[in-house]
Automatic annotation (TrEMBL):
Keyword flag RNA-binding: no
Keywords: Membrane, Transmembrane, Transmembrane helix
Transmembrane residue ranges: 12-33, 45-65, 77-95, 101-122, 134-152, 164-183, 213-238, 250-267, 279-295, 301-318, 339-359, 365-386
Pfam families: MFS_1
Species, as recorded: Qipengyuania psychrotolerans
Domain Major facilitator superfamily (MFS) profile per the UniProt entry, residue ranges: 11-391
CDD domains registered for this protein in UniProt: MFS_NepI_like
Protein name: MFS transporter
Keyword Transmembrane helix (UniProt): yes
Superkingdom: Bacteria
């Protein structure tokens, strides 16, 4: 059987654009969550169902759908899942009832599997010496997709209404879905073996035999829960009295995440030198300091830049070092170990979405700061405990 054709430079960059578009869909809600709650006349606690069910559905989708990548063409699956995402976005765009909007967001989350299939697809179609470059390119697409979604959604909603955000998102996904069959070269069925359900069920024994992966997943679940919970509460806090800022201001603040694009590769290289577990513990301490600073500095938007910069500098580093603890293990189980880690992460994101908005609705910004402080302290304790596993 002949080898698949290598990707051209143009295809590599277009796949990075695809990665940005399919990832961005879950993050449009962050700066505009207050506007959406007001439109549907739901409480700040209830609006948390939108991102919460999206993240939990994503965790279920990864568990049930990602193993299909070991049996079927990544190209075919990516196209099918893109259709599912487009359908979910269309439901959100046209929804007149809150229930339908939540259902669309949940469906969208369930089919957001393409960001995890694209690297696997690309790895089979690039020369070995270019694998690192192309993987980094796709990762950059994911980060930029999140960044542009949060900044762009805030600005568009402030000037033209939140509904236009989802019209644009649906249009982008429809364009991507139509383009994917031509962009992604045809490929044969995956060479992976084993029945689908056996692959899914085989994850369970790994939970017992690779306990550090579970610990790393729990640490990242707390880390991601804090990230989601903070930004949802912050969007509500800044658009409520006494600030009364527009959603565009929330979007501008989200642009601070751009510092992670520069810091994360450098922190990753430093972690190679000192060890992933030690580096993660240090990152956790720095993040804890940043989160504690939200309490005294939360009354001024300019002062809040200090803790926001701190947590955006080291937050992604906690994720990177968590992955480093198991990506050097045996290749035969690496994908399933990644599945455990990512599922735990998005369960954390779902819980953080619901708890973040509920706590803010009940106890305001002070309650949010206490919640984040407790969560970050627990993360730091777990990171300290994890250093006993070695470097």
């Amino acid at each position: 059987m002949s080898s698949p054709a290598l990707l051209t430079r143009t295809q590599e960059y277009l796949l990075a654009v695809v990665a940005a578009v399919v990832t961005a869909n879950a993050y449009y809600i962050h700066p505009i969550i207050g506007d959406v709650a007001q439109h549907f006349s739901v409480s700040e606690a209830r609006i948390g169902l939108v991102p919460a069910l999206n993240q939990l559905a994503l965790a279920i989708g990864i568990l049930l759908l990602l193993p299909l990548g070991d049996r079927y063409s990544n190209r075919r699956l990516t196209i099918l899942f893109a259709i599912g995402q487009t359908t979910g976005l269309a439901m959100m765009t046209f929804a007149e009832q809150f229930t339908l909007f939540v259902a669309g967001s949940t469906l969208l989350g369930f089919f957001t599997i393409a960001p995890y299939l694209l690297p696997a697809y690309a790895s089979k179609r690039v020369a070995p010496e270019r694998l690192g470059h192309v993987t980094a390119l796709l990762t950059a697409g994911v980060i930029l997709g999140i960044l542009i979604a949060r900044v762009g959604a805030g600005w568009i909603a402030e000037h033209y209404g939140w509904r236009l955000v989802y019209w644009i998102a649906t249009g982008l996904m429809l364009t991507v879905t139509i383009a994917l069959p031509r962009l992604m070269e045809g490929g044969s069925r995956s060479s992976g073996s084993g029945a689908y359900w056996k692959l899914v069920v085989s994850i369970a024994p790994l939970l017992k035999s690779h306990r550090e992966v579970v610990l790393s997943g729990l640490i990242q679940a707390l880390n991601f829960a804090q990230f989601i919970g903070l930004w949802l509460a912050l969007a509500l806090y800044l658009t409520d009295p006494p600030f009364n800022y527009g959603t565009d201001t929330v979007g501008y603040l989200a642009a601070i995440a751009a510092v992670s694009i520069l810091s994360t590769p450098r922190l990753g290289r430093w972690a190679d030198l000192v060890g992933a577990r030690k580096a993660r513990f240090i990152f956790a301490i720095i993040q804890l300091v940043g989160i504690i600073l939200f309490w005294p500095l939360g009354g001024n938007i300019w002062a809040m830049l200090v803790p926001l910069v701190l947590i955006n500098l080291v937050g992604p580093g906690i994720d990177v070092t968590g992955r480093m603890t198991f990506l050097s293990l045996e290749p035969a189980v690496r994908t399933r170990l990644t599945t455990i880690y990512v599922v735990l992460m998005f369960i954390g994101g779902g819980i953080g979405s619901l708890v973040g908005t509920t706590v803010y609705d009940a106890y305001g910004w002070a309650g949010t700061c206490i919640m984040l402080g407790v969560s970050s302290a627990l993360l730091t304790v777990l990171a300290a405990f994890a250093t006993r596993y070695g470097r």
